[in-house]
Amino acid sequence: MGLLPGGEMRQTFPALLTQMKAGDWRSVEQLRRDLERVESAEDGQWRQAYITAAARNRGADLGRLIEFLRSCDAWLTTGLEDARMRTGGLGEDLAEQVRQVRTEWEQIVANPELGGESHE
């Protein structure tokens, strides 16, 4: 029992992680910024912000990176739920570890510079 994904993902995760490290993570950050501009755009600016967010070429990596983030979110969420179902001892320890990993993951995704590696 640990924080690694289970099932088939346990077998494929290390290679997938290596592939994702080589991806252009700037595209995810650019998409996030463009979507924030859409959300915060004033009446006269929302149309341009929307077109920019929809039409910008983000490269070939974006789809794979987003799918990777979704699958990681799914197994982390499942791990948190499973750990929450346990009470006391190992279950609570694992739940806290999963919470810490998820918090760190969210911080890295929100601010890639915190990850310690440059993805540029």
Strand-helix topology:
Elements: H1 7-21, H2 26-40, H3 46-55, H4 62-85, H5 89-110
Give a quick summary of the entry.
This protein has 120 residues and is mainly alpha-helical. It has helices at 7-21, 26-40, 46-55, 62-85, 89-110. 72% of the residues lie in helices and 0% in strands.
Structure class? mainly alpha
**Could you report the average pLDDT, rounded to the nearest whole number?**
80
How do the helices and strands follow one another from N- to C-terminus? HHHHH
Q: What's the main sheet like? A: none
Low-confidence segments, given as residue ranges, are none
Strand residue content: under 5%
How many individual β-strands?
A: 0
- Distance from N terminus to C terminus (CA atoms, Å) equals 35 Å
Defining traits:
120 residues, single chain, mainly alpha, 0% strand, 5 helices, globular
Explain the overall architecture.
The protein has 120 residues and is mainly α. It has 5 helices and no strands. Helix 4 packs antiparallel against helix 5. It starts with 6 loop residues before the first helix and ends in a 10-residue tail after the last helix. The mean pLDDT is 80.
